[in-house]
Amino acid sequence: MAASPANTGGPSRRVVLTASAAAIPLLVSACRGVQVLGAPPPPAPDVRLLRSAMSAERLLIATYRAAIPHASADVTASAVLAALLAEHEQHLVQLDSRLVVPAGSADSAAPGTRAPAPIPADMPTALAALASAEKAAAQRLATQLLDVPPSLAQLLASISASEATHVPALDALRRSA
After folding, report:
1. How far, in Å, CA of 117 to CA of 129, rounded?
2. Alpha carbon of 81 to those of 56, 75, 84, 165, 177: distances in Å?
3. Is residue 39 part of a domain?
4. Does 104 reside within a domain?
5. Do the domain assignments include residue 123?
6. How far apart are CA 134 and CA 131, in angstroms?
7. What integer pLDDT is reported at residue 111 of this predicted model?
8. Nearest alpha-carbon partner for 57 in 113, 119, 126, 109
């Protein structure tokens, strides 16, 4: 005679399997109320501002890259523009280091950079256009300081001050051109 399994007093395997099969539709219907694949929430205001500052830096970088070939005949102007370009590239690195976006989120892709305005062929006018862009960038960042957390405000203030110092450097170059 075959040995029968000991009755442990708990539910039989058949009862457990039947109950599990009955629970699956309940779990599926409960998950329908949760938007598992819904649209992610919009980024916070400081994230949008940070992305805007990054886009503005990318535009300044593109503008400097477009202006440097016009200054190739003037060694001093080329060196100054290359140094200012390097500072803008550092600004972008600092801004980018503050942006934390979860992988796969709708906000994870970097926005494209607008094309810079055409650079005038004559160097004094090109330098005046760069100085104007720097002044506008410095003012824009300074007006945004009250709308961001203190650590980001400190970075934006530093970048704004740096961009403001670029204006007299560009004006001096323009006067000597």
Report:
1. 9
2. 17, 10, 5, 13, 13
3. no
4. no
5. yes
6. 5
7. 55
8. 113
Judged on CB neighbours under 10 Å (0-12, 13-18, 19+), 84 is buried
pLDDT band per the 50, 70, 90 thresholds, residue 29 = low
Q: Indicate if the pLDDT at residue 79 is higher than 90.
A: yes
| CATH number for position 65 | 1.20.1260.10
Q: Is the pTM of this model over 0.85?
A: no
φ/ψ (deg, to 5) at 76 = -65, -45
Helices of type H across the chain? 13-32, 45-67, 75-98, 123-143, 150-176
CB of 164 closer than 8 Å to CB of 134: yes
- Residues near 54 by Cβ (< 8 Å), separated by ≥ 6? 92, 95, 96, 99, 110, 111
Cβ neighbors of 101 (< 8 A, separation 6 or more) are 47, 107, 108
Q: Two tokens at 51?
A: 């992305």
Total domains in the fold of the chain: 1
DSSP-derived secondary structure letter, 35: -
Kindly state whether residue 20 falls inside one of the protein's structural domains.
Answer: no
Q: Which residue has the tokens 């760069």?
A: 130
Q: How far apart are CA 141 and CA 162, in angstroms?
A: 11
- The domain containing residue 80 runs over which residues? 45-99+114-176
Report pLDDT digits (tens) over 91-128: 999 999 998 876 655 554 455 556 777 888 888 999 99
> Which two structure tokens, joined as six digits, stand for 55?
């886009």
